[in-house]
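User: I'm new to structure prediction. If I give you an amino acid sequence, what do you actually give back? Let's try with this one:
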Amino acid sequence: MRRRRLRAALTAAVLTTATLAALPAAVPPASAIPAPAVLPLASAVPAAPAHQAAARDWSMAVVDSTMARYTPATIGGWSYPVGLYLYGQYLVHRRTHDPRLLSYIKSYADRFVSSDGSINQSFNSLDSMQAGRLLVILHHETGQDRYGKAAQKIRDRLNSYPRTSDGGFWHADTSSRAHQLWADGTYMVNPFLVEYGAEFHDSAYTDEEAARQLYVYGRHLQVANGLLRHAYDESRTASWADPATGLAPEHWCRAVGWYAMALTDVLDAIPAGQSQRPQLLGIFRTLASALEKYQDPVSGRWFQVVDKGARPDNWTETSCSSMFTYALDRGARQGYLDPHFKAVARRGYEGVLARLSVGTDGRTNLADISVGTDVGDYAYYVGRTRAVNDFHGLGAFLIMNEQLRGD
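Assistant: Good question. You get back a string of structure tokens that encode the predicted 3D arrangement of the chain. For your 407 residues, that looks like this:
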């Protein structure tokens, strides 16, 4: 029972191809979506149109390209962008059973986890906890206790981790982040929590805590238009905080994407009778309707500042488009959302594929990914660097593609 439950939690993003329902015929063909208009890759050839993409396993293409660019020693330090990408790589491993993919993840984690299970991380921010999912995965896959001991350090840190007055985890245990809830943080800790609980028989705590966190964050961050603001400051002292509401001024797309993915993964894991499940479903359905409203009708993607797509300097961003696509499709297939959201997700999927190209070196390139981002105003968000092959985008792409590739 323990293995069956964890397997369900760890693979919540993966659907067996044979069970995928056909999408409505009203979904526009890929040819209706224009090729990328920005960040041209001089050495690249265009990606195949989405209706031809099924002939190639784009998840494996992205993973092979990334492993060719980086070794486990050079891919980066202990961080959430690398953790996100490697989680996506694990999903590809679960489908393909390619041992190289899991070996790569293990080699990365072994840079930080000692033979006795110690890990040189303080876990004083939610961001630092996201890669803990890899520790739960490796304990499950290898049976080695040291990964469980390392993961337990995150679980134990939450016992004393600072919270808002209504129980929300601060974004970080630092003076500059005190009393603040960032939508980003929901993905950094809550999927880890439910997966840790399933693996280590701690679900009585972890499921309740994850649901509570999502509810507290959603109650503060979701506003009348259905979207979430990037952040909330209970103290109202942050430079970006509205003095009356404590809210950040904008709907930054990836912050909303983090919350949407966390919500989906936690709903997949918690029991049907969990007390806050109805409230979480209500938040999800309201958010989904807003995402449908603000989806770019031309590209199928979503804008860096979600609700201001009409502004000429705004631009469609690839990582959040992947996140929304995953959450909407998964939500519709799991019955959390109306089935018509599969068509909304399909337009998003084709839009993201239009940002994928293959260079003359045979490696994939994924464009228009916002680099790591603080809380700011409109000009700050639209001025962020539009990177190629940033791990935020690669990880989100893999999670999305493993969800929709069988269509």
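You can read the tokens as a compact description of the fold. Here is one thing that stands out. The first strand starts at residue 44 and ends at 45.
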